[in-house]
Amino acid sequence: MEEDFSVSVPCSSLAVDSVLRMSSAGVIWGACFGPFDARRLGLSGSARATFIAKTVGQCGFSCGLFAAIFSFTHCGMQRYRRKKDWVNTLAAGVVAGATFGAGTRNWKQVAGITGLFCTLFQFAQDSRSV
């Protein structure tokens, strides 16, 4: 039987855990995507190594920052509403998506899609297999 750690563990611990996990995933993604993109740009030597290191750092930082914003918003909504449901996930996804989409032309679309994906993931996580 699975234990629900979100009840007994403080929000700050959950946020740190999610930041570490997502930062690690971002570093792995950057390490896989960086060499591909460097080759596409025609870089070689030290310029290639610098580009790959920069890509790894940017991906790790971005994923970690997204996880931090999402986790703290999700915990805050859960505490404020005193409910544990999909609305908290949707709100946290929209806030995190709006934060990252603020630099784009269509931040409302980024926020909405991020909230939708986070909510769908929550539904999939909460569903029970037969």
UniProtKB/TrEMBL annotation:
Question: May I have one GO cellular component term?
Answer: TIM22 mitochondrial import inner membrane insertion complex
Q: Which stretches are annotated as coiled coil?
A: none
First-listed, main subcellular location of the protein, grouped into a coarse class: membrane
What is one process in the GO biological process aspect for this record?
protein insertion into mitochondrial inner membrane
Q: Does the keyword Repeat apply?
A: no
Compartmental location: Membrane
Q: What are the entry keywords?
A: Membrane, Transmembrane, Transmembrane helix
The membrane-topology field of this record reads: Multi-pass membrane protein
MF (Gene Ontology) = mitochondrion targeting sequence binding; protein transmembrane transporter activity
Residues spanning the membrane: 51-73
What Pfam families would the database entry show? Tim17
Provide the protein name: Outer envelope pore protein 16-4, chloroplastic
